[in-house]
Description:
Layout: E1 4-7, H1 13-26, H2 36-39, E2 48-54, E3 59-70, E4 75-85, H3 94-108, E5 114-116, H4 123-132
Amino acid sequence: MKYHIRSANNKDQESILNLMKAHAEFEGHTFKFTEKNTQLPPLNKSPIQIFLVESPKRIVGYMSVVKQFSTWDMDWYLYLDCLYLTKETRGLGIGKQLMQQLTVYAQQQKIKTIQWQTPKSNLSAIAFYKKLGAVNKEKHRFFWEIPKLSK
Length: 151
């Protein structure tokens, strides 16, 4: 399969949203398009860096990262929010190339650490990350829905 990895631009938003939906469904969640297409910030004005995997016909994967600060380490790190490849592209070495692209990006940003998480049920991703030499630090992830302020 021929493909290349590139940075996303504002014209890619529809493709990115479709991959986000597929990613959510892959992990057993629902993804509603209600207002989400207007909530994805313009990529040229966003703290999010999105890399795309593009085949000659369509975009087949994405990886999104955000620069964050660790008060424990007193240093910046990259948080790998999502890495998703369509079913037909998994196992072809593209994930490893995305992670290599991420290390280059981290070096350009003068960042020494990348953090991420994956569901316990995603055994193939866990095996992939361990093969890269990544270390798992067990934590519980919490979600707290904040109610809207009443006027």
